[in-house]
Amino acid sequence: MSANIEQSNKGLDLVKWIVAIALLAGAVIANNMFDQESVLIRAVGVVGAVVIAGFFAATTFKGKTFLNFAKESRTEVRKVVWPTRQEATQTTFIIFLATALIAVLLYFIDMGLRALVTFLTGVGI
To answer: How far apart are CA 28 and CA 91, in angstroms?
Structure first.
């Protein structure tokens, strides 16, 4: 019994995906066909088609899974301890300073290697 229900859900999900894709394709085609109409009317039509297509997609198994994932992600983001403005500024300054220090260090290493190659080969680079 469960296999029959699952099989019918897969068929229904396929139909829903086809409808959602057809709505999106129809929105693109209609937007191009009615290019003489007002941009506001076309924008409302496209947004409406996207919302309806999203509704159809959200009622599928994969759509429900995605919505559940989005809700769980939002919950996890709320658990994050975000740094204060002072901590973020200090961390940014430390990273900037470390990057500048490494850049200067690499510059001097490059100059030293260039001088060594010039000394050993006699050819200036």
So the answer is: 46
In angstroms, what CA-CA distances link 2 with 7, 12, 16, 59, 63? 8, 15, 21, 19, 21
> Residue 86 corresponds to which amino acid?
Q
Cβ atoms within 10 Å of 49's Cβ, excluding its own: 20
Alpha carbon distance 39, 25 (integer Å) = 18
Spatial distance between the Cα atoms of 26 and 38, rounded to a whole number of angstroms: 18
8 Å CB contact between 16 and 59 = yes
Q: What is the pLDDT of residues 91-107, one digit of tens each?
A: 999 999 999 999 999 99
Count other Cβ atoms within 10 Å, centred on residue 20. Answer: 22
For the chain, how many residues are written?
125
Q: What pTM does this model have?
A: 0.55
